[in-house]
Amino acid sequence: xxxxxxxxIRLADCAKTxxxxxxxxxxxxxxxxxxETVVFLGPSGCGKTTLLRVIAGLESPDPGxxxxxxxxxxTNLPIERRNVGMVFQSYALFPNMNVADNIAYGLKVxxxxxxxxxxxxxxxxEMMQIGELRERRITELSGGQRQRVALAxxxxxxxxxLLLDEPLTALDALLRxxxxxxxxxxxxxxxxxxxxxxxxxxxxxAIGDRVAVINKGAxxxxxxxxxxxxxxxxxxxxxxxxxxxxxxGTLRDGSLELPxxxxxxxxxxxxxxxxxxxxxxxxxVPEAGAPLRGVVEQVFFLGDRTRLHxxxxxxxxxxxxxxxxGEFQVGQAIGLRIEPGALLRLRD
Amino acid sequence: MRRTPYFYxxxxxxxxxxxxxxxxxxxxxxxxxxxNFFVGVKSGLTLRWIGVVWELYAPTIFRSMYIALATLAVxxxxxxxxxxxxxxxxxxxxxLVEEFLVLPVAIPGLAIALALIITYGGFRDFRxxxxxxxxxxxxxxxxxxVRSVLAVLSSFNFQVLxxxxxxxxxxxxxxxxxxxxxxxxxxxxxxxxTVVTLSIGEFNLTWMMHTPETMTLPVGxxxxxxxxxxxxxxxxxxxxxxxxIPLLVALQRYGVQRTGTRKAA
Amino acid sequence: MRGRxxxxxxxxxxxxxxxxxxxxxxxxxxxxxxxxTGKLGLAAYTAVVTNPQYFEALASTIxxxxxxxxxxxxxxxxxxxxLERNHFFGREALISMLTLPLAFPGVVVGFMVIxxxxxxxxxxxxTTYFGAGRLVFxxxxxxxxxxxxxxxxxxxxxxxxxxxxxxxxxxxxxxxxLGANPWRVIVDxxxxxxxxxxxxxxxxxxxxxxxxxxxxxTLATDIKVxxxxxxxxxxxxxxxxxxxxxxxVLGVITWATLAACRVAAGSTAAAAG
Lengths: 348, 265, 273
Ligand SMILES: Nc1ncnc2c1ncn2[C@@H]1O[C@H](COP(=O)(O)OP(=O)(O)OP(=O)(O)O)[C@@H](O)[C@H]1O
Ligand SMILES: [Mg+2]
Hints:
The structure holds three protein chains of three kinds. By secondary structure, chain A is α+β, with helices and mostly antiparallel strands. Chain A has eight helices and 19 strands. In chain A, strands 6-7-8-3-9-10 form a six-stranded mixed beta sheet, with helices on both faces. A five-stranded antiparallel beta sheet of chain A has the order 15-19-16-17-18, with no helix packed on it. In chain A, helix 2 (99-109) packs across helix 3 (114-127), helix 2 packs parallel to helix 4 (143-156) and helix 3 (114-127) packs across helix 4. The two termini of chain A are 47 Å apart. Helix content of chain B is 80%, strand content 0%. The longest helix of chain B is centred in the first third of the chain and has 41 residues, at 48-88. Chain B starts with a helix and ends with a helix. Chain C is mostly helical. Chain C folds into two domains: 1-35; 44-272, Orthogonal Bundle (MetI-like fold). Chain C is built from twelve helices and no strands. The radius of gyration of chain C is 23 Å and the shape is globular. The chains are: A alpha+beta, B mainly alpha, C mainly alpha. The complex binds adenosine-5'-triphosphate and magnesium ion. The site of magnesium ion has 3 residues of chain A, from helix 1.
């Protein structure tokens, strides 16, 4: 146990091919700065868990790949000597031990003296606000409580890096929201380097200092949540994260021409092309004098905002979201405005 | 809940089956405690026959007990790790191992005993020692231990428990003894009870393999049924019941026997 | 890092493999060889068909085992399903009693048959009491049959109960709601659902009956079942090669039956004893 938070992690040319021939991870290079939380986001089966397991040392990368913790090459170091904390989706708490013994397990393995161990367990119980669960059996805990114990157990040994594999997926929506905030606060207060795997883009946006989007075993884009959301590098990323409108238009004289009107864009060049924008980037304006005009086809009231499907603006219905309180009627004519900066053009 | 006539019909049938199984047990218990079974209980109850059994067959009782315990020790040491490996690396020779696990049912004990005698009968010291019987019992019971432990290990994801223990710094053996074994306890206990029960009652192999110095309880039973009066055979059977029934009850209590069967099914 | 672990795992299975090889595979191979090296040579293996005496023993063993299997499945099927689906006072006790004889060795089972149907048995007493003369059948094929179902019922009940537990009551209710009578419900819903368990436990029951020795030995029946023939050849006639050949044949038959049932049941269920 070296108690040093903020270990930088570097993967160099790490690929993973399973014995049955499945190529779960393409050749990947990646850097995580010390103390940073990187979220790995991607659809089911894309290789997120595999990547995490390579970092942990549960899988060795194909020959040629290397894993570094700071400057130390840990590629051949088994997981039990890497000092990583892991939190599993299924919690993986030891059913043969109570809460306190679970949290103390890593300390015991590391040879920490009993009194120091007990103190550390108390500290962890308090930090996770589960002091009253101390003597409980694992089977007597709720899902949320189990996840807190799992986190406490992983953090207790002060690991160099914390690896979390879909830690909230098994919980209900409300609890997920609450624990997500707690984990976010915790990770930053500890200053620990963390790799967080999820397939929930909302979770990724909320927790990640950076988000790495994975598709078919390859990292397709890395960036801050904002970058990923507003500047997706590919249509996969654009579609995977939130709703994205995709319309066919023509660029002429620096303006984009759509069936519902034309908007200034300020781009060079000309010709037909596909253009993308987020639903909340289209502002609703009075119809008279609006650059784009359309008709409300469907209205979904979502509580904090209203989502409209609008026809007539483009070759297909576009999705528009607004936080205004006004009521919208189906069949109502409305005007739209889109800031030039919100329009995206993808190369692929 | 209202009971239909079908219910009572089935209940009656079940009770009939139950009495078919239990009536002879009670009869033999009574016979073992009766002065003269032909005359009936009115001839008086006695512990005399038990005394005779003790005089004649006490060594077989102790021998059966320590062979059962030795069998248990060997199957624990050999079988539990083997089951763990099988659970951990399924693909590895799974078909072969499955075959091996049904073999004690498939190959009659007689054939196994013959095979052992033919192969190792030449080693006189071994042939006449209780170690020879032990080998037969281990062969017969080992699959039950392996299957029982395997059933428990495949009922929960022990691999992820091991992985989390490893992430906390625990090495291979520490994980095996500290995490895997304690969590497989129910299967190990059920397996142990099965092994001891089967070993104490084993006859087919032992009858062929035994020598006068290595006679076990069931072999003694066969001997007494053939050559002693009914009351002595009954009293001896009673001793056997006293040894085996607590084990069976424990096995039922543990409930794992049934779940074990279910897992394997 | 996998390498070290694999080495440890190998170390852990090694004892089981060594014991299995030295005390099971090797002796079985020796048995097969010895069977072919008697004065009959390889013909020892065909003797079970060509020699009327052995063939008769084989035939009666198979007929007996099949009959016992069918009878046990019916009896244990009814009681097992009944016990799993009805909850009443004393049910647990009844289950315990029904499964108590689970580990009685064959000899003891033989003795139980003598208690029931032997010269001083309960059935004889009852028939005498009712003036029908003393009925004694322990030492006939009926006695063997009684003994074999005695040791088969408990284990089959356990397997059936485990399978019946997984029966979905909704299926049955659906069938009833469609107007099926109880008989149709049994044929269309319950039996198909229990089929794997029936095949599996039937196979085990058959295999156990084929190899059973203790019961027949205790009852000293005049009916020769194959295990008794093997024993006689080996012990009394010192005809080791023939005994070896016959036990190989017996082993192969039961093993093949089990394997076939395992394929039929589509799982390792036959392994459940
Ligand atoms: N031990 C293994 N052997 C063979 N193939 C595997 C193994 N583990 C994973 N795979 C395969 O590798 C691919 C990536 O799996 P991985 O578990 O990394 O996906 P994931 O992104 O974590 O998915 P999920 O969100 O469903 O957990 C999948 O196609 C999976 O089937
Ligand atoms: Mg995963």
